[in-house]
Every structure is written in structure tokens, then in C-alpha cells.
Amino acid sequence: MNKAQGFGLNLLTRFAASDLIDQLKMRKLLEKTLYQGSKSGFQLLGSASRQFRPASGTGKQRLPATSKNLFDLSLSDEQQMTRDTVQRFAAEVLRPAAHQADDQANYPADITTQAQELGLLFYALPESYGGVASEQSVVTNVLIAEDLGHGDFSLAASILTPLSVANAITRWGTTQMQEKYLPAFGEDTPLSATFAVLEATPAFNPNDLKTQARQTDQGYQLTGEKTLVVLGEQAEVFLVAAMLNGKPNIFVVEKHDTIGIRQNPAMGLKACQTVTLQFGNTPAALLTDDDFDYQAFLDLGALSWCALAVGTCQAVKEYCISYANERTAFGEPISHRQSVAFMIADMAIEIEAMRMLVWNAASLAEAGKPFHREAYLARLLCNEKSMKIGNDGVQIVGGHGYTKEHPVERWYRDLRATAIMHSGLHA
């Protein structure tokens, strides 16, 4: 069914590229048909997938690496179809809702519902657990994050959080963890899950955590505090980073009365409803038993945040181009001034550099090759350039850029999170 859906939408997409529909004045109708058709197709796909449940004794599931010989920037038909759908969702749903979500510091319930209709969670689940994933899809996940980030950074992070948890459990979870939690992500009301990695310590080092885990007869118990936990109050399950025997590891924690939750509003990420979690001898279980790679866990999280930043920076650039062409001063558009034109040109160059580094690292990760160096370089560049682009966006709009009248103010605040967040998302 997935191939049939892709074939049908591919035909529609090819027809959309022809000049005939413009002559017949059918462009708007076809665009609406493409969006609704792809959305309905994902709903149908999700409905069918939910009929699958893991059989007893299925065993631990691991998605194989994608077979690649070269760094190929071309997208498959399925990836392009996914991008087209996500881009429309970001433009038609996320962008219009972003201002109010930020102003009210709330992740709207209707956004949750509409995001579920996209069926993105099923790309994280192996077929044996009700999903459609047959191999690792790091590049596709990065593309989804970039396109959602183009709609809104904060709402996109909220949407991607449960998808990221499902990715992590699929990649590293034990058989018990997978059989217990993965089917819940494919239900009509998916499992609400998030990460708890960051700590409120100066120069936070994710390899030297204050949160500690100790083994007991019943399993493990956690003590410590985590900050800026995305959607932490609503989450039913947490993936928590903690030290065990002097080494960092990831633990699965279900909501428990030993977890203290307090509001922790931040400069940006308002729609993420970030909170601080206090663990007081909280019961926990190890995510994995033998093949866990903590550095890869951090690197994949960094790539997701970087992809969000690339999408949001693209939105900043496009908004500034439109504004500079329309805003006149001394009888001409301000885009005619070299200082403004060069600033926007620098944005375009920096965004392409960010995108290439992120895509390169994701491609290597998907192929099962070492990618730590590339992910580190991508994070360094995105940390620096995303904040610069956000700042330049405010600068180009001028005094109005500092007010909520223009979205560059919100994008500037959200983009600063790129250099702060460690994991919390997972490609």
C-alpha cells in the first residue's frame, strides 16, 4: 500500500509540474488535492499499521543500515513525497499557529492531533511493531525536522520529541523495552514520551552528569535534576541520561510520584512547555543491554536540533528577502542597499553550509559509518550561524524586529536553543 500511495502521488506531482494545469486554471485545486491526498494516505497507512502487534518471542529488533557507496544528495520518490506533505503541513498548520502558541506558552492540542495524522511515528517503528520502517532512516528524519522547523522551531521540537524517543528505543532498546513501549506509539492515542538530558550546571557536559543511577534488587533508581525537558509535564515515559558506575547511560523512566515537576519557562521554546524534573530514588530501567553507543545518541540528537535550525534559518532568510524588497527608505527598497543585500547573501551561504554538513553527517549515520566528526562540525557551525542569522533577521527588520509584530523576534529566541540543547531529539 505504501508503494501504491507513493506511485499515485508521484503521478499527481508530475502532472502538477506541467504547464497544462496553469492554462486550465487548476493550480490551486491540484495543490489542495495533493495535500489532502497525501494526508489521507498517511491516515490510511497508519490505520492499517495499527493492526499489527508484536508476537511473543519476536526478539530484539534492529533496523539495518542503508546500503550506500557515495554521498548522494538526490531524494527518493518516497522522501520527496514525505517532504512535500510535511512542507505543506508546516506552511498551512504550524506557521499560522506559531505566534499564539509562543504567546500562550502552550502546545495546542489540535496541533498534536493534526501532527498524528501525518503518520510520522510509523517511520520509526519496525514492521513487527506496527510500523513501516525496514531500515534506518536518519536522512529522512533530518529532512522532516528541517521542513517542520521551517514552519516553527518550537512546535516542530514538540512534534518530534515522541518520534525521537521511538527512534531511540528502536535503535537501542532491549527486547523487553521494545515489546513494552513500541506498540504504544502506534495506537490511536500514541504514547507521550520525551528526553531528560540537560542539567542546570555551568558549561554542562553531557558526559559528566550530576544525575546518578544505582542498582537495586528491583532494578535501578535515579536521583538528580534535569532542566528544559520538552513537554515534560504531559509525558508518560522519559529517557533519562544518568551516570552508572562512572559512565553515562540512558534509562527508561515511567511517570512516578517520586518525580517532582516544576515549570521552567525559557527565553525561547515557549510552545515546548519546558519543565524541570527532580528525581528522588525514582524507579528506572536500562534502555539497552549490550550495543548502546552514548556518543551516537548525543550526535543524532545534535543533528536533529541542527536540522530544526536550518529550517528556521531558511524561514528567516525568506522573510527578510520579502521585507527588504517591500520596505522603502529614501524612495527605494532597502534591498538596494549593499549592507542589507550582503547580509541576506551571507545568510544564504551560511544556510547552505549548515545544510550540507547536516546532510553529510546524516548520510554517514544512515549508512552505518562513523559520523561523530561530521556531526560535531555540523553542531559547531549551526550553533554559531543559527544565532547570527537570527540576530541579522532582527537587524534587517530594524526596530520592528524587536517586537512581536514580526516573527523574526520569535525565531531569534528559539534559534538560541540550538547551542544549548543536548540530545532531547533523535534522528
Automatic annotation (TrEMBL):
Q: Name one Pfam family in it.
A: Acyl-CoA_dh_1
Q: Which domain of life is it from?
A: Bacteria
* UniProt keyword annotation of Flavoprotein present: yes
EC no. given is 3.13.1.4
Q: Does the keyword Lipoprotein apply?
A: no
Q: Domain (Acyl-CoA dehydrogenase/oxidase C-terminal): give its ranges.
A: 296-421
Question: InterPro entries attached here?
Answer: Acyl-CoA_DH_CS (IPR006089), Acyl-CoA_Oxase/DH_mid-dom_sf (IPR046373), AcylCo_DH-like_C (IPR036250), AcylCo_DH/oxidase_C (IPR009075), AcylCoA_DH/ox_N (IPR013786), AcylCoA_DH/ox_N_sf (IPR037069), AcylCoA_DH/oxidase_NM_dom_sf (IPR009100)
| Residue ranges annotated for the Acyl-CoA dehydrogenase/oxidase N-terminal domain, each copy included | 76-185
**UniProt xrefs under SUPFAM superfamilies:** Acyl-CoA dehydrogenase C-terminal domain-like, Acyl-CoA dehydrogenase NM domain-like
MF-aspect GO terms = acyl-CoA dehydrogenase activity; flavin adenine dinucleotide binding
Q: Which UniProt keywords apply?
A: FAD, Flavoprotein
Instruction: Provide the family line.
Output: Belongs to the acyl-CoA dehydrogenase family.
Q: Which PANTHER family match?
A: ACYL-COA DEHYDROGENASE, ISOVALERYL-COA DEHYDROGENASE, MITOCHONDRIAL-RELATED
- Indicate what this protein is called per its UniProt record: 3-sulfinopropanoyl-CoA desulfinase
* Originating species: Alkanindiges hydrocarboniclasticus
